[in-house]
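Morning. Coffee machine broken again, so started the prediction first thing and wrote up yesterday's gels while waiting. Chain of 224 residues, entered below exactly as on the submission form.
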Amino acid sequence: MKKSKLFIAAGLLSVGITLVAADHLDAPAVAGTTADITDFYAFEGANVDNTVFVANVQSSLAPAGDAATFDENVLIEVNIDNDGDLVEDLVIQAIPRNGKMYFFGPFAPSMTGLNSSINTEATYTGNVDISMGANAMTATEGGISYFAGLREDPFFFDFTQYNAVIGGMAPNGFNVPGNDDFDGTNVLSIVIEVPNSLLGGTFAHPAGTGTQVFNTWVEAKRKQ
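Came back before lunch.
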């Protein structure tokens, strides 16, 4: 297994499969940095035999986005626990280089937890040109599809009213409808669609024993 330099976790978001996690503007250690994870989505693909993972980074980018770039010193790692012990059994890694996003995995990592190294000899690898305009460039290799680039922020949140509620200045709570304070801003998105056959895992779960169920979370890891 060929490895890169060590990467250490800077930010993390987790979800149960088919759910969504979001963390805009409120992670002091990484807020405003290139390692700031804004959203993580995991859901059934249009092909029901696939799962789609979406990791968004760098909140509130300007609509033009000309200056927005993925950080070549930040590894995005999707973690998959397929036996229910909340420890990653598989990872999918994404790292940008010279206008392309390179992907490795899913593969079983040689180490778990906050530290990672890139496995450039993983069985499943691919790359895609990073899209910075309206046209989305995608690529498919080994049955896995990839996208990386600038997209409109899909997260809806009335951040101004939230602050008013927290500060005791809004006795009636949130407005209906609220104002989307992230409307018209962009994020950098990494999208990976993976056949479920590559993810493994069946374990007892309230959804039903024998159903393919797994836990997943994403980390942004900075090169040390």
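The helical segments are 159-166. Going to sketch it on the whiteboard this afternoon.
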